[in-house]
């Protein structure tokens, strides 16, 4: 029988650079969502490629479910936020059906269903 040695607990922690990168990413995502709430929906600066090529899009996959997507037109940066209600700047011309289909599919596959 072959046994692998157990790793020491302190070596399993993420290194400082990974923690810093995750913190910076969360901070920039929060900043971008706050900008979207003010109505700035285009030409936002991407935290990855540093170009002003981010756009904000919305989906409304079902009932009272709304999602906000932030997508870079220059690189592969994108993220999605689940909204507690209808976003202030939600409009049909900002609604992306392709993203909405993906959100609906994710909701259907979710283990935890909304009541």
Task: Describe, in short, the structure shown.
This protein is of the alpha+beta class. The chain has helices at 16-37, 97-109; strands at 42-44, 54-62, 65-72, 78-83. The chain has one domain (22-109).
User: What distance lies between the first and last C-alpha atoms, to the nearest angstrom?
Assistant: 49 Å
Q: Sheet bearing the most strands, described?
A: 4 strands, antiparallel
Give me the side-by-side strand order of the main sheet. 1-2-3-4
Helix content: 25-40%
> Would you identify the regions where 5 or more consecutive residues have pLDDT less than 50?
1-9
Q: What does the average pLDDT come to?
A: 84
**What count of domains describes the coordinates?**
1
Question: What's the gyration radius in Å?
Answer: 18 Å
| SSE class | alpha+beta
Q: Give the topology string: H per helix, E per strand.
A: HEEEEH
Q: What sort of overall outline do the alpha carbons produce when their principal axes are compared?
A: globular
- Count of alpha/pi helices: 2
Number of E-state strands = 4
Q: What percent of residues are in strands? A: 15-25%
